[in-house]
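YM 10:42: Uridine 5'-monophosphate synthase sequence, as discussed on the call
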Amino acid sequence: MIDIEAACLPVGMGSATNLNDLVLKLFEIGAVKFGNFTLKSGIQSPVYFDLRVIISYPDLMIDVSEHLYQASKTGSTYQSVCGVPYTALPLATCISTAHKFPMLIRRKEAKDYGTKKIIEGHYKPGDVCLVVEDVVTSGSSVLETVLSLQQEEINVTDAVVLVDREQGGKDMLKTKGIKLHSVCTITQILEVLGNMGKLEQDVINRTKQFIHDNRFNPNGNVKRSPEDEGGDRSIKRVKRVLTYGDRAKLCSHSVAKFLFTTMEDKQTNLALSADVTTGAELLRLADAVGPHICILKTHIDIISDFKPDLVHDLSHLAEKHGFLIFEDRKFADIGNTVKHQYSSGVYRISDWSHIINAHALPGPGIVQGLKEVGLVKDRACLLIAEMSSKGNLATGDYAKATLKMAEEHDDFVIGFITQSKLSNDPNWVHITPGVKLTRGKDSLGQQYLTPREVICDKECDIIIVGRGITEAEDSVVAAKAFQEAGYNAYLERMQKT
Ligand code: 5BU
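YM 10:58: structure's back
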């Protein structure tokens, strides 16, 4: 039995009803439902929370936010509140206005160029912010908001939620140094509604069994800095730099997710530009260098003996070694033409290349055209924002406009071919060609930066290396050297920031 008295909250300014009344009201308005529901994951659930409906009941909104505020008081002190978009945004607003805590808003998508903000509102490094959420299952949505705040040097020690589904979210957040406070748990809801005769015992049993059978394991993928380990949080700053693994969790596009996951797991930010001219040489390189790369980039039209079997075999090697294929086709025509270039002809690029790239020059129609083909196949596109060759015209405002175009198509565009970081939004992948172990140029205008300059100084994510590997005496030895240089530069950047 839960202690209902203890769950009753003090009455006073901003008083809250008792928990029984709150749970009953949530049940009556359909914010919590019992039956058979198919969740986004495809799992069948006997319980469903639709807490968005709360916004249609102003008194309930005030009551819920007051309960949240009271529950948060058992945690550390904080200077501001931030709701997890979207349902918890108005709840955080109510807490903010009723109790005079400044509010922060985390953007789901970042808008402006360069200094682009993910967090809106006034704050200073070292501020402590309370994260507010409506319902927690695995904890991943709370974590997303926490990571965005930490990226701006805002500390998060506590989060508060209306309903804890008791499926592992609290434990997961604990592994990240976040204490989760809940107004109620699903066990409490079942008990309250059971006592009131609103639920049959078999519904209660089925729901309990479901919760028990569907717990998420806490997964400590986020690297923790020493500052996270307790201590006086109010004076210590936590600048959490997002690892590739953290970013995999944030990305919604499956190709970007796979890419970041691969980079973290294989410890490589190296893309091989396999600019060879025979199929046999392409396959030999892919097999030999495959363990060291996250992407294999092709120029399929320079293969003199191309046969459809080649891309079939290449796809097998991609699966074997866990890398993505990126056909560096640099589409640059009107939407209708690129659609055909992407899907038909001899190469049928969309059939085998996970990633393609395009110039932004023709305007958004090019992305729309490519997207018509690629989206259904779960393909991804990179926009060419800046080039490595001397005297190229893709600079300044051009790169800015490219970012804007990408933002308008973020269901298909996952990032940029660029020479420097364009946006702080961790969802975008920044990929840089023109890389050798020492600076330099070739005789036709190519300009080379080092892996450290690209990854550490310019804060890009992936180095593209062609002749540095293909013309080396031993391509595997060279690939390993680039892998090491690129990954060490990434580790150095993690330390530095
Ligand atoms: P390199 O051998 O490492 O110079 O090869 C670089 C590759 O990257 C090559 O395939 C180019 O077509 C590709 N590339 C580039 O070098 N610079 C750019 O700005 C773009 C692509 Br976009």
